[in-house]
Amino acid sequence: MSQKFAPNLTSLLMRETAIETVPPSIGYLSGLVKLDLGFCKRLKSLPTSICHLKSLEELDLTGCEKLKTFPEILEPMEHLRNLCLDFSGIKELPKSVENLVSLKDLFIEGCKDLKFLPNSLCNLRNLEKIWLLVCSKVQKLPSLPPSLRQLKLDDCERLKSLPELPSLCLSLSASSCTSLENISDWRAPLLQHLGDIIEYASYEDYIDFYGCAKLDQNTHNTMIAHRAVIQILARIKFGRVTTYHSFCYPGDEIPVWFNHQTCGSSINNIMLPPYWNNDDFLALAFCIVFHWNKIDNNRMLIPSCTLNFKTIDDGSLYEYHDYTSSCKYNKFSSDHVFIWYVERRSLESSEEMDGLDWPSTCSTEASFHVSHSFSDYVNNNESEYDEIKKFGVRFVYKQDMERCDAETERKNKRSFNECCESSGSETVGFLEEEDEDESHSKKLKLM
Q1: Where does the secretion signal sit in this chain (predicted)?
Q2: How is residue 165 annotated by DSSP?
């Protein structure tokens, strides 16, 4: 290869060729930045000399069905940032993968023979994204690097548990992981730390555990629910605009943080305090428990909420309609929780709320009604059974942010002390445990 290509070659695109092996001499292409071997369906091996490609930033092995092993990385590769093994024949990654010291994105979708990832994966301190979708033989994951920001595990049907998740992991999708039972831990970070990641991240932040019916109650009604609330507060605090507003997980409880709750789909006659929409008011957060049965494939659930604000002073009535959406893929019969929010600026800028006095209105009365519809990409079939079972609302204020960080610091300190004392007692998750002098009935309250 050194005779056929100049050493300063930066891109080598051999996609969909009949190549069966890559010769060791590829290591002489010291200036190579991109190597694309995608859909080389006869490719069986890569040489260990690939680690000599010191300028390499992107390696694409998508669709290399006969490539069963990834080569040992015998020395650090300081520039490789993107590795794509989607739909390849890879059965495992070597321990020496830890020498991909600059790796940021790892794509391993549709690798049907892959059974596990090496424990050394946690040493990749720059790894931010792992996409491990439709890997049906994977049953567990190793410890994950603290740098991880996005983890996609959709349709890993045999995956039974998740290790402790990095506190700054904002995007977690495990949709249709039907064997998943628990998450070891998912610590709550301070909002200001999440804000740094939100500002930096180029991807959306979301939580999706649709169809994970085997998750234990502590995982879905406590850990995931609390994490969703924290990320909503972080989005609101730092003005994150995202097209993916909803959080979804199996469960049958509205988190107590939503301090206005009802069975059914309507909350009426909420008496608001004077000047409820002053400068401290930031958003409205919504939560529903939805039950469905035999929803067809490719259905999109579209929950919507109608808000009515009645001004006590003059009796004026203002109505606002909010819509959010979440796309789902398979048939399941269970309760699921959906959480979303509407920012203050969306309320202020709406034509329906144009007559409401901003930034503050004297005492008002509010009512809410949530409903839903379905969109079907294929046949427009209706679901056999669906129902909104519970509904919750919270008015979000600046004080919520301050209390959230204060509570997080208190919990983290307590957890640290418990570990130091080796008490063996189980650390209680964020938002779950109350102050010692509060009643047990107020657990889950953030404030």
Answers
A1: none
A2: B
Measured CA to CA, the distance from residue 257 to residue 447 in angstroms comes to 8
- Helices in 201-343 by DSSP H: which ranges? 217, 225-237
Calculate what percentage of the chain has a pLDDT beyond 70.
Answer: 76
Element (H, E) at 70: none
Three-state SS string across 89-150, please? CCCECCHHHHHCCCCCEEECCCCCCCCCCCHHHHHCCCCCEEECCCCCCCCCCCCCCCCCCE
Amino acid at residue number 206: Y
Q: What are phi and psi of 103, to 5 degrees?
A: -60, 130
Calculate Rg over the CA atoms of the chain.
25
- The answer to whether 53 and 76 have CB atoms below 8 angstroms apart is no
How much of the chain exceeds pLDDT 90, in percent? 50
Amino acid at 285: A
The residues that bridge with 388 in the sheet, in sequence order, are 290
Distance from C-alpha of 441 to C-alpha of 447, rounded to nearest angstrom: 13
Asked if 98 and 75 touch (Cβ cutoff 8 Å), the reply is no
pLDDT range class, residue 253, cuts 50, 70, 90: very high
The residues facing 289 across adjacent strands are 337, 390
Please name the residue that has the structure tokens 């959406």: 325
User: What's the length of the chain?
Assistant: 447
Nearest to 207 by CA among 226, 180, 187: 226
Domain boundaries, the chain: 1-148, 260-401
Element (H, E) at 268: strand 266-271
Confidence of residue 402 (pLDDT cuts 50, 70, 90): confident
Q: Find which of 91-95, 334-338, 415-419 is predicted with most confidence, using mean pLDDT.
A: 91-95
Backbone angles phi, psi at 133, to 5 degrees: -100, 145
Residue with tokens 């990320």: 231
Q: How many C-alpha atoms does 427 have within 13 Å on its Cβ side?
A: 21
Q: What is the Cα–Cα distance from 342 to 354, expressed in whole angstroms?
A: 16
Q: What are the structure tokens assigned to 148, written together?
A: 């991880």
CATH architecture of 1-148: Alpha-Beta Horseshoe (3.80)
**Hey, what are 214's tokens?**
């085997």
